[in-house]
Structures are given as C-alpha cells and as structure tokens.
Protein: DUF7137 domain-containing protein
Amino acid sequence: MTARTQIVERQNQQGGQQGGQQGGQQQGGQQQGGQQQGGQSSAAGSSVSASPSQGSSAGSQAPSASGSGSGSGSQLNIPQTAPVGALSITQPVQTTIAFFKLAQSQPITFAWTFTDVLSTPASLTVSAVCENGVTYPVGPTDGVIPGTATSVVWDPYAFQQANPNSPLAQATYTLNIFDERGPGAARAPGLLQANSALRFALYTPQPYTPIASGWQCSGCNVNGMISQYTAHPAFISIFATILVMFLSGIAVIRNGLH
Structure:
C-alpha cells in the first residue's frame, strides 16, 4: 500500500467520524426540541385547564354584583315636595280634657292614625309629661313601641305600684309621641313630626265614708254658705242698693196717691 493510499483512507475515516458526531448532535438536538415542544404542550394544557376555573370564578362573582345592585335599588327616595308626616290622636277624643281614674284595673288606651308618613319609623316613644315637669313612660315597654303601632295601653296604677319613688300626681298631663329622631327633630318631608296635642288628667278617688261615720258634705252646709255671703262686702252693697230702691219706690207711690 502506498503512502498516498494511506492518506486517503485516514481522511475518509476522519470524515466518517465527523459525520457520525454531527449526526449524533443533530439527533440530540431533535430530542431536546421534542422535549421543549412537550413542555410547551403541557404548559398550554395547564393554561387551558386553568381557564375553566377562571370562568367559574367569574361566574361566581356575577351573582354578588347583581345582589348589591338589588340592595341599592330598594332605597326609598322621598321627594322634597312631599308633605311632613303627621300623627292624629283618635282616642280619647280631644274636644275636652279627658279625666282618668288612678285606680286598680283602670287601664288607659291611647290610639292614633298616621298621615303622609312615607318612611315608617323604626320605633315610637310615648311619654306623659306632668304639669310639674316630671316625665313618665307610657306603656308596658318603658315607653318604646314599634314604629308601626297605632295604639298603646297604659296602666298608671300598676306603674305607680311598681315605682313607688315616682308617684303619679293628681294633675294634668301632656302626651308626647315622637320617633327615633327625638322630640326636637326638624320637620322633614315624609317623616313623622312629633305630636304633643293631647292633654289629659289623672285623679285619685276618695274612699267611701258612711254618713253614720261622720261624713259631711262641704258644699251642702246652708248655714255656712249664708254666713259666707253675709260677711262678703259685695253682699252688703247689693242689699243696701235693693233697700234704697224699695224705699224710693214706696215714696213715689205714696206721692202719686196724694
């Protein structure tokens, strides 16, 4: 074998080795590319699988938004031109001052009606203000009743028995009714205006005393009444005037006869 032939064979061997290495590298690159494609596919699959959960979360958020919208829509809008709400007492009748007996089993019923009240009060406070300035709660619930109530029953005798340190005086009272805003709340369209129009009186009946036990009628003593009238200066003046007129009349008649 010549030297030239040996050189050619060596070149062929080196070329084959280089070709094999390049082929192996190409195959490895193809394998890496396949792995990358597989990773991208799995990532895409995970993103796709995540999208339904986002849709479900979006779907779950939608009802809450609609619920808040319905809540805001339930607010009451009162026009500024609406009249002020009023309360009118229907029991007892307000033509005169009503008198109530402060005795056992003698409850008092107060009743009323609403007019132009567009916003129902949360609560009503009912109280009786005595002419001496003392205020008493009216009703079995310490004076506070539901805003939709149209009457209240008060037992003043039971209240006095339960509160001996706050006795009810025999006097005239004013019934106050107002909502949760208080008695001095400003007038507002559609809202209840405080009412203090009703006046009533409480009295305590005197125990029965037989005549045989010494009962006397202070207004039935005729002798006492006469003594009072005779001692009064006006009675003396009237009596003197009548006497003068009588005597003058007699004198005129006597002169006419002559």
Q: What stands out?
A: The beta strands are 86-91, 98-101, 108-115, 123-130, 135-137, 144-146, 151-154, 172-179, 195-203.
